Amino acid sequence: MTGLVIVGHGTRSVAGVDQFAALVERVRRRGVVGDVEGGFIELSRPPLTDAVGALVARGHRALVALPLVLTAAGHGKGDIPAAMGREQERHPGLSYRYGRPLGPHPLLHDALEQRIDAALAGADRAGTALTGADRADTWVALIGRGSTDPDANAEVAKVARLLWEGRGYAGVEPGFISLAEPSVPGVLDRLRRLGARRIVVAPYFLFAGVLPDRIVAQSAEFAAAHPELDVRVADLIGDCDALADLVLERYTEALGGDIRMNCDTCAYRVLMPGFADKVGRPQRPHDHPDDPVGGHHHHGHHHGHDQHDHGSVAVVGGGPGPDDLITVRGKALLDAADVVVVDRLAPQGLLAGLRPDVLVVDAAKVPRGPSMDQEAINAALVTHARAGRRVVRLKGGDPYVFGRGHEEVQACAAAGVPVTVVPGVSSAFAAAALAGVPVTHRGVAHDVTVVSGHLPPGHPDSLVDWAALGRARGTLVLLMAVDTIAKIAAALVEHGRAPDTPVLAVQDAGQPDQRAVPARLDEIGAVAAREGIGPPAVFVLGPVVDVATTGPTA
Questions:
Q1: Whether 108 contacts 70, CB under 8 Å
Q2: Looking at residues 65-74, what average pLDDT do you find?
Q3: Is 231 helix (H, G, I), strand (E, B) or coil?
Q4: Choosing from 287, 343, 398, 522, which is the catalytic residue?
Q5: How much is the pTM?
Q6: 365 has catalytic annotation
Q7: 433: number of CA atoms within 13 Å, CB side?
Q8: 474 pLDDT above the threshold of 60
Q9: Given CB 3.0 to 4.6 Å as the disulfide criterion, which of 50, 152, 182, 294 pairs with 73?
Q10: In whole angstroms, what separates CA 498 from the centre of its chain?
Q11: Active-site residue, from 365, 487, 522, 546
């Protein structure tokens, strides 16, 4: 008979490892499969290579590899198949059929229902039947792992709906503990606003681990802040007969070839909005500390149970300053980060919401003040990523608009570190908008040019054609020009810009102390000095400045 290898991700939780082992033993005792082993792709013993090796040593050349995961995200779609591919290289002639993830499935829904009802009944009513009124007054927050794979997150939402249908709960809302929204506090607050007074938080997890512990902690923290609510946390699915039944069902369908994987909304195959970087991404196996393969082995360091890979860098544009102008994707990556390397102009308020264990590295970049050398920043990104950490390089504005973002991307790529870029709202356009000025407007300006003013006209290192900009008639946006604005204005007038061209200096755009100071082009240097304009400031030059107050003229 074809052997079965049950493949887990791995966890730092001793209880989680014990529960996995207990499930493997439960499946083995059923006697349905002649030979069963279980192993992990990282973090925990035994490693997958030991489990496969044991089956091969007992004469098996064909296996079913069953991913013990609930949703088809990165571990199930890429990491485990890549690890099994490595085992085929080690054992020539070995073949395997790959089972599909466990959920969504009615057996799991029934198990979740039992856990929810047990939490709802409480210790004083354990084992007693609940009434319809009990459920009708109860809202459920179903909390999944969270993923950078939209298909996996959508499956959690589907499970929430299926759990609601026909069971009589007041409602079931999905949420996530990492990488996706809504967060645990977010979904609990949503239920509170919907009128909930009793909430059962149901972790959609198989076994104990870092993330389930975090669900309990965040639920308790929310409950303490809202004493008017009755918030309870249900048990995990855990080692149980229903889970063993499902494992055996997946084994049987894998033997029959009835896999029915969902590829219609797989971000690794199909271009999904916001996830273009995933299409065609190569899949690499994890390196297990007890698996003697090439590469790094994490000796002495195990990264978090909730990490998707062995370390990566995301260069994230934080926007023009306000905390709520970062992109949704940037915020999700920030929430999942282990290390944040932050600039002075990045949204500082977001740092207060980071987990207590997140390492924050201050890259400063203060004009004429403390500043972390760019090479040191590059080295920090690479070093932390190679140590298995998720690193976010949080920058102000957009990382590719005078932000040296591509230098950091190049450094990571050269070091073999996975890196992605999340665009941000650039102050080049946002500052003007927040001051009520459009950088383009029909009948007024058909072009906009963004220029770095950190070097004045005539500087030997300047790459700017100031003469061409003097002849232009569109909108000109100057960044990093506080010290050079007088010389820039003089050069523009010298090369043809009208002296009375309107200019608006916008300082601290989007912040409570935002200032917008207007002037003529030939006077902006003196006005900026008199008004004490200091960085961060953006200068917007052109007829669009007048649109905000008088509107376009014929």
A1: yes
A2: 91
A3: strand
A4: 343
A5: 0.54
A6: yes
A7: 9
A8: yes
A9: 152
A10: 48
A11: 365
